[in-house]
C-alpha cells in the first residue's frame, strides 16, 4: 500500500509494543518515519508534547494527529479504518 498520509512513530529500543506496531505497519506496506526516543530526554519531551502528555511508547501520528499506541493502531486495523486514514491525506 502506498500511503498518502504522513506516518510517524516514536519508539524506544527493545519495546515490544513498538516492535508490534512497526511490524503491523510493515506488513501493510506502510511507509513511516521513526523517531527513537530511548536515549533522548528532549525527543521524549517533544513526543509527549505532541501526544497530549502521553509519555509511553510507541506514539503514532498520522498526518500530525496522534492516534495513540500499538493497541490503538491494531484496533484501527481490525476495524478496517487504518487504510482509510492512510489513504486520505489531510495535508
TrEMBL record:
Domain Glutaredoxin: 7-67
UniProt superkingdom: Bacteria
Keyword Metal-binding in record: no
Alphabetized InterPro entries for the sequence: Glutaredoxin (IPR002109), Glutaredoxin_subgr (IPR014025), GRX_bact (IPR011900), Thioredoxin-like_sf (IPR036249)
Keywords (A to Z) from UniProt: Cytoplasm, Electron transport, Redox-active center, Transport
Pfam families reported in the protein's UniProt record: Glutaredoxin (PF00462)
Entry GO terms, CC: cytoplasm
GO molecular function, one term: glutathione disulfide oxidoreductase activity
UniProt-listed GO biological process terms: cell redox homeostasis; cellular response to oxidative stress
Family recorded in the similarity comment: Belongs to the glutaredoxin family.
Function summary: Has a glutathione-disulfide oxidoreductase activity in the presence of NADPH and glutathione reductase. Reduces low molecular weight disulfides and proteins.
Protein's recorded name: Glutaredoxin
Organism: Candidatus Endolissoclinum faulkneri L2
